[in-house]
Amino acid sequence: MKLDFIHDIQRAYRKVVDSMSRPGLITNLKDEAAKVDLEAGCFPSTLVLAAMLLDTEVTFKVVSEKEEETTRWINQLTYAKADAAERADFVFVLYDKAEDELGQILQRVKTGSLIDPHDSATIIVEADAVTDGCDFKLTGPGIEEANYVNVSVNGNWMEVRQQQNAEFPMGVDLIFVAKNHNLLCLPRTTQILSEGRKL
């Protein structure tokens, strides 16, 4: 693989940190993803995220029709071990997921505890598109007033996310990555309003 596991991953890490600390800021992993020459059943940018986030100390779950293939590639790339969605530290919900699979997965993943809120899952979701727009209004820490974005993912995931994040500091963090490698982070502290409704 042409991906530089030091410099390219550091650049990708900085972009994710920027998007996580300023929810609504859309960054792009195109340059890093262009160096991925594996056909692993997922977006190249998803593999960049896997290489950045995973190591031997964490576990992961792949949700996909190509789960076995992608799991094998991620394991070989990072040496992280696969586990069930209920126990995994990172869950990759890939593009070929069923229509409401994200919502179902969000109901099953770990959200931490009041003593150990960090013992929760981060969900990486492949989306049709992630763009600036007016579908969702974001407010909360890291946002001066409000940010507006569009995320093309089907299902009732927003309502389930709200339920899972209701008892702060427990909850789950979401990272969306699109076909064009746009990246958007929704930490558990971010509030989402859709069509005038708070979710």
Automatic annotation (TrEMBL):
SUPFAM superfamilies, per the entry: PhnH-like (SSF159709)
GO biological process: organic phosphonate metabolic process
Domain of life: Bacteria
GO terms for MF: lyase activity
Keywords associated with the record: Lyase
Name recorded for this polypeptide: Phosphonate C-P lyase system protein PhnH
Transferase found in the keyword field: no
Annotated Pfam families: PhnH
InterPro entries named in the record: PhnH-like_sp, Phosphonate_metab_PhnH
